[in-house]
Amino acid sequence: MEKTFLMVKPDGVQRNVIGEIVSRFERKGFQLAGAKLMSIPTELAEQHYGEHKERPFFGELVDFITSGPVFAMVWQGENVISTARQMMGATNPKDAAPGTIRGDFGLTVGKNIIHGSDSPESAVREIGLFFKEEELVEYNKNINEWIY
Ligand code: DAT
Ligand code: MG
Predict the structure, then answer these.
(1) How far is the CA of 136 from the centre of ligand 2 (A)?
(2) 4, 94, 109, best to mutate for ligand 1 pocket (most atoms within 8 Å of CB)
(3) Could you point out which of 59, 60, 80, 117 has its C-alpha 20 to 30 Å from the C-alpha of 109?
(4) Nearest CA to 136 among 39, 30, 31?
(5) Environment class of residue 15 by beta-carbon count within 10 Å: exposed (0-12), middle (13-18) or buried (19+)?
(6) CA 140, CA 60: separation in Å to the nearest integer?
(7) What is d(CA 43, CA 12) in angstroms, rounded to the nearest whole number?
(8) What is the ipTM of this complex?
(9) C-alpha to C-alpha distance for 60 and 38, rounded to whole angstroms
(10) Residue 99: helix, strand or coil by DSSP?
(11) In angstroms, rounded to a whole number, what is the distance separating the alpha carbons of residues 6 and 85?
(12) pTM over 0.80
């Protein structure tokens, strides 16, 4: 089953929306495969956002993502990568539709509440950066018979 890496950023943790965000993915029908509250070391932040290292906001981005705990998650389900991106909304919360996570909880691009992998390649890469294989759990939920 397809998997993606999602992370409630430090602003989302401080704003007390971990539960709300987890709830949205649960209700949609996705299955949680792993989760942890953690502080991101600077090196990991720089690796995770490596594709942005030439961008003018890279320093701010790394400072922000290491500024407080994050809630890192792996979710699985059919089309979870692209569906989670839709549920997150546009990168800049000012452009994110109401009903999306960023549309409902964010105001500015620097503090946009949630990260989600943007492709199958980045999902594999990011899951590998944040989780050891033994931290991911494979299990069956009977409710899946009513989802698939
Ligand atoms: P996304 O998080 O939607 O995948 P991205 O990968 O383009 O967006 O950028 C990563 C993060 O960097 C984004 O969540 C917020 C920050 N960011 C993006 N564009 C920015 C900008 N123009 N100014 C400041 N921060 C920005
Ligand atoms: Mg991105």
Answers:
(1) 22
(2) 109
(3) 80
(4) 31
(5) middle
(6) 41
(7) 22
(8) 0.98
(9) 19
(10) coil
(11) 9
(12) yes
